[in-house]
Design brief:
- With 271 residues, the protein is of the alpha/beta class.
- Helices cover 37% and strands 18% of the residues.
- It has 8 helices and 10 strands.
């Protein structure tokens, strides 16, 4: 019996160690093949080259806003790259919003490897670009999709100490990456092991911006309970949509873009 226990403990320890070492490969799934904006269904967008504070060169895509409209800064989820987001971007382009699809390190041919601090640095580079373009924070809508929700919350909290952003939109968000990992690996001490924490629930109360949260009730990737807990921790003004028929990747099939456009029109004053 002692030998059996020793074997089980040894196997478990080896499993925990292996998952700890490869965790970033499990979290980040970058798409490396980069199509052009036109080939991705967004011919009005243009590539822009940005530089993060640590020197990493990034390619993002940008289309300026029509007069009187805000600019969405779109932080994608963990898979693919910005060339895959045409179906999500199209309604906002058609509405006349400005749009900056944020390029990440390690994604879409950009150099570097993704990490929590690295993605925050990439996000700050996007906002610095808009500031150079003469677009102030009150016209920014920080949109975080899944993994990207952690970036949007971080940057909104940072910006709140200066001039708050116009609004924050979170699609399928989480309280923290540790909580999301624990939902998938309940037999592991996931909250302790995770390196990239993206602890949004500790920051959401400080964003000082109107908040929109949407989450599918059938989400099998990030449980909707995490989105609901994050929303509850936020201060008003805030709006939520818990979509019964939706999962993780199909919220736009259930009218999400129209909800976001209506929310932004109510909440963001760019005059």
């Amino acid at each position: 019996m002692i030998n059996v226990v020793a074997v089980v403990v040894g196997v478990y320890t080896a499993l925990v160690g292996a998952l700890y070492l490869i965790q970033r490969e499990l979290i980040y799934h970058p798409g490396h093949e980069m199509r052009s904006p036109a080939a991705s269904g967004m011919p009005e967008m243009r590539p822009v080259e940005l530089t993060a504070a640590d020197g990493i060169k990034l390619v993002s895509w940008y289309r300026p806003a029509q007069e009187g409209q805000p600019t969405i800064v779109y932080f994608q989820g963990n898979a693919g790259n910005i060339a895959d987001r045409g179906y999500k971007a199209r309604p906002y382009l058609d509405a006349g919003f400005g749009l900056l699809l944020a390029g990440y390190r390690g994604y879409g041919g950009n150099p570097g490897d993704p990490s929590e601090e690295g993605l925050y640095a990439d996000g700050r580079a996007q906002l610095a670009f808009l500031a150079r373009e003469g677009i102030g924070p009150g016209r920014w809508v920080l949109y975080g999709e899944s993994l990207g929700s952690g970036i949007a919350v971080q940057l909104a909290e940072e910006q709140a100490a200066k001039t708050p952003v116009g609004a924050v939109v979170l699609e399928s968000p989480y309280t923290s990456l540790g909580d999301a990992a624990a939902a998938h690996y309940p037999f592991l001490p996931a909250r302790t092991l995770v390196k990239d924490r993206f602890n949004s629930i500790a920051k959401i109360g400080g964003i000082r911006a109107p908040l929109f949260v949407a989450h599918g009730e059938g989400d099998s990737v990030i449980p909707v309970e995490l989105g609901k807990r994050l929303f509850q921790a936020a201060r008003p003004p805030k709006e939520s949509h818990w979509i019964a028929a939706a999962g993780h990747n199909d919220l736009h099939d259930h009218g999400l873009a129209a909800m976001v456009i209506a929310f932004v029109a109510r909440m963001v004053n760019v005059k």
